[in-house]
Amino acid sequence: MKKSMSKKLTNNLALKIVSVLLAILIWYVVVDVSDPIVPRTYDVPVTITHTDYIETGKKTYLIDDQYRSIRVTIRDNRKKLSEIEDSDITVEADLTQIVDMDTDPVFVPLTVSCPGVKDENITLSRTTIPTKIEDIELQTFNIESDIGDTVPGDDYEVGKVTLNPENISISGPKSIIKKIDRVNASLDVSGMTADGNKTTKLVIYDKNGEELTDETMSYLRYDIGSTKVTASVDLWKKKENVKMNIELEGGPAKGYQVGEIITSPSEITVVGTDEALEDLAANDNTIDIPVPRDVLNLNNKKSDVRGTLDLTTVFNKDSTVRPSSRTSALVIKATVLPNGSKEFDLDVETIQKNGLDNTLSLTYDQPAISIRVKASDKKLDAFNPAQMIQASIDLTGRAAGDYTLPVNVKLPDGYELVDDIQAAVHLKKAETTAAAAGGSSG
């Protein structure tokens, strides 16, 4: 029986061996078709290790953003690759392995690993990354609050923001520290109707006004341990229709006086603490507005002076009342008159039109023009422009068009016109009665 078994095993031995080899080959073909070995690329952030090796010498490192991640290619079965995520791969740059410290930049070797994958099946897009070695710089910055476009609830504005801390010391690569322009605490005050505290994250801007990226921020260290600060937000109430007492510096030339001070707008909205608004009400809702000489200079002037005041520069940060942010600019005109004179408004409709062609109509640029009259104080107090001014304008020979023409003014005895008067007029074809009737019937 043993001979029979042996004989069966050895019969056609070569054929049987070929069959086994063929079966193995077919198995490899099937596997290769159903789960082939293919390459796959991953973007993997570079982990920097042994940073203390550099920092102990009061130096630090700086890697350009383009080298903060590396392309990693793995060759393996398709099914296995589908189970591998970027986070499963580790790419390290060990600063103790810097090739040559005398070069600029230095080059740090990269190592890569992935659990379950053989090293020979992993390749990197580059084997080293250039790294700059820089001195560590320390600088202290004031922190400024920034509410951006956010606004609190109706009838409120942000009056005061107290930050804790108010400044911050930042250390890092010298090239980054030198680029820092300002440090802001960004606050969202949307809908706030009561004072409150907020925790916010600092935003650092470079000298081009660009916000530092997270990658750049990762090189920085802070004396407070993080970029979070606490902000105490005080809301102030609004008060509308507040009058202004304009305080000007200097005075006009000898023999001249300041007449009327005209502002646009004529009244403003202010915000303030409850106590400050109570004091304002006791002062007839009038706020003092000091105007610096570089905005409006009256010194030795003999004619009107104009200027535009940036209201945000008038009140310092310790003020308990200030103009609302809705009113940022104030246009100011100070009239300068000879002593013993006064300015009056004349309604343009009272000006007599001489020589106006009956086919034309006339309109003015403004409803009234200013007339300056000189007389005794008693006579000026009694002066009534509507009754005591006779004004006319000569339109003889004028065709349709725009003109600036002199206005002839006659005053009663004892009164003198200070300046010649001109008016901007517009002449256009008058609408005929027939055309008007046709237009109305249509």
Total DSSP helices = 10
Broad CATH class of the largest domain: Mainly Beta
Helix content: 10-25%
Domains (count): 4
> Per CATH, what is the topology of the largest domain?
RNA Polymerase Alpha Subunit, Chain A, domain 2
Global Rg: 43 Å
Shape: elongated
Counted beta strands? 27
Structural category is alpha+beta
Mean pLDDT: 88
Account of the 3D structure:
With 442 residues, the protein is an alpha+beta fold. It contains 10 helices and 27 strands. It has 4 domains: 37-126, Beta Complex (RNA Polymerase Alpha Subunit, Chain A, domain 2), CATH 2.170.120; 137-236, YbbR-like domain (RNA Polymerase Alpha Subunit, Chain A, domain 2); 238-338, YbbR-like domain (RNA Polymerase Alpha Subunit, Chain A, domain 2), CATH 2.170.120.40; 342-433, RNA Polymerase Alpha Subunit, Chain A, domain 2, CATH 2.170.120. The chain has a 16-stranded mixed sheet that branches. A 5-stranded mixed sheet has the order 21-24-25-27-22, with no helix packed on it.
List the keywords:
single chain; 442 residues; alpha+beta; RNA Polymerase Alpha Subunit, Chain A, domain 2; five-stranded mixed β-sheet; elongated
